[in-house]
Amino acid sequence: MRNLSVPFTRRQFLKTSAAAAAISALPAPLALASDKARHHAGLQLYTLRDWMKVSVPGTLKLVAGVGYRELEFAGYFGQSPEQIRSMLDDEGLRAPSAHVPLTDFQDSVNKVIDTAQAIGHKYVVVPYLTPEQRGNSIDVYKKLADDMQSWGEACNRANISLAYHNHDFEFQKTDGQLPYDILLNNTDDNAVCFELDLYWTAKAGVDPVTLFNQHPGRFKLFHVKDMDSSGAFADVGTGTIDFNAIFSHADKAGLTHQFVERDQTQDKLATIQQGYKALTQILQQR
Question: Which three-class secondary structure state does DSSP give residue 63?
Fold first, then answer.
């Protein structure tokens, strides 16, 4: 198996792209089934960041060949918003969401909005806080909540929604309080929503359904990411997380889009194929 520390080469990309092209030329019952589902199986492109570095248009063509129709971006890899929009249109794709670094919001929320409008994003997501950004005081999260409230109001005026994506550290007490509670309780539901990462939520020992019941309608986006028996990442549908039980409460959550993701994988093509198959089957049961 390929060592994760070895850079993904253009030759490897072309080999994988050829395999995806062959797949897309075959009958695609999964793709047809997805079109009949209530929602589409989406893909978070962070999973394919090595491929995106090699070729953005090639990667988008590949994921379209697997069957995905919705994407969530995590960087544009030197492409302009107009170029990204053109590539999406060429492949029959749409990108309802994008992860945008916290520093971009801090620098200019208006620029974030302009980019989102040019590409067609309906959600812009604060994806991660570095250890330096989160610090060691709950006041950091109170300030972040205030900022997100302001950014969310600006986004709403442009018909875009602001969301926050969790890891597990938001569920660890700081100064006796949970950072996630601060972000939920100190923002309005009409200004800030949440993208619940189902892996990291499980990793923190938190029940998603409890969150849905406490804050109905606020979880507009899911990251569908599985966990193996040791607590490590797994391809969707091969691990221990009961996605069907979680998705049975999707209406209470307020869910609108869901994205397959795996932070680290040694076989990206197999991961996104399995993720597409498993998530499509989950959505058909809703």
Answer: helix
